[in-house]
């Protein structure tokens, strides 16, 4: 009597063609991470995601690679490359959860690949920006564009609502952790109001429905900037390029 093969099947492009939702890719990723301790962050894991990139995320003209743990994932427009943070298990993150977060990161970067043109044109249109303004403008453009590609992805496929919401929540948690270290996150009495404004602007760009507790002065400034952020989110990269300079100047002037 032959032994029963209990190994997880190797997914080919043809197999993945029937897995049309991000939720199914997440389920497969969690299963593989739980079943094989060496799969997470391996070459096999990357190959699985490469196949999904074309068949599920609809990006067929880009390459995929790992970057070291702790380095941010990114979309490189000039080389048509998605760089994903290689997932690892930590005391607070299981292999299954790390695998799911990696899929959510791939979803986000794939939307940049689909909807983001060459970035950072504001530097060419505004070569005379002060270094401080240019630095804040670069950060604000990233956040505006993050929110915009998520919006475009949802318009293209309403089934992306749940995974995009999960990614936004994950991103918001990261922003909150950064701000909390200096007591400038969601609190009515921040240590630094300018830093809280930066936190609030980033949060609103990627998760506009999230309720924040802010200093009244920060809340008032954010309220005045919500409408142009909403227009940019539903608009083009060029609108994000133009608005990021306005937001940067608002941050510098706020102090």
Distance between the termini: 77 Å
Uncertain stretches: 1-19
Structural class: mainly alpha
* H/I helix tally: 10
Give the tally of β-strands: 3
Counting copies of identical and different chains, the oligomeric state is single chain
* Helix-strand pattern: HHHEEEHHHHHHH
Share of β-strand residues: 5-15%
Mean pLDDT: 89
- Please give the domain count: 2
* Proportion in helices: 55-70%
Q: Rg from C-alpha positions?
A: 20 Å
Largest sheet: 3 strands, mixed
Inertia-based shape: globular
Strand order of the largest sheet: 1-3-2
Nutshell version of this structure?
With 255 residues, the chain is mostly helical.
Description:
This protein has about 260 residues and is mostly helical. The chain folds into two domains: about 15-115, no CATH class; about 120-255, no CATH class. About 60% of the residues lie in helices and about 5% in strands. It has ten helices and three strands, in the order H-H-H-E-E-E-H-H-H-H-H-H-H. The chain has a three-stranded mixed sheet with strand order 1-3-2, with helices on one face. Strand 2 (about 75) and strand 3 form a beta hairpin. Helix 8 (about 195-205) runs antiparallel to helix 10 (about 235-255). Mean pLDDT is about 90; it is low at about 1-20.
